[in-house]
Amino acid sequence: MSTIAFSKDETALLVRKIQLYFSQELSQQIGQFDAEFLLDFFSKEVGAYYYNRGLYDAQSALNAKLEDVQDAIYQLEQHTDFKR
């Protein structure tokens, strides 16, 4: 798996969200450096779990669509004397 990297703009947005969360939910102020450090920590330590969950969800959605395609193909099949 390659490292997930955010652009400067994305990082700035996420840092602001962390700062806002600390301010609103914890009534604490957190500086930009500390928020970036926290973002890096969660990205490295927890990010893979979220990434993998996204892959599992995508795989499940794809499998459901493939089953639909298989059913559609089966419905197109014409009756013959041949056996599968």
Largest sheet: none
* Fraction of residues in helix: over 70%
Shape: rod-shaped
Give the beta-strand count: 0
Order of helices and strands: HHH
- Count of helical stretches: 3
What does this structure look like?
With 84 residues, this protein is mostly helical. It folds into two domains: 8-45, no CATH class; 48-77. It is built from three helices and no strands. It has helices at 8-26, 32-45, 47-76. Helix 1 (8-26) crosses helix 2 (32-45). The mean pLDDT is 93.
Topology:
Elements lengths: L7 H19 L5 H14 L1 H30 L8
Helix pairs in contact: 1-2
Defining key terms:
3 helices, mainly alpha, 84 residues
Q: What can be said about this structure in brief?
A:
With about 80 residues, the protein is mainly α. It has helices at about 10-25, 30-45, 45-75. The chain folds into two domains: about 10-45, no CATH class; about 50-75.
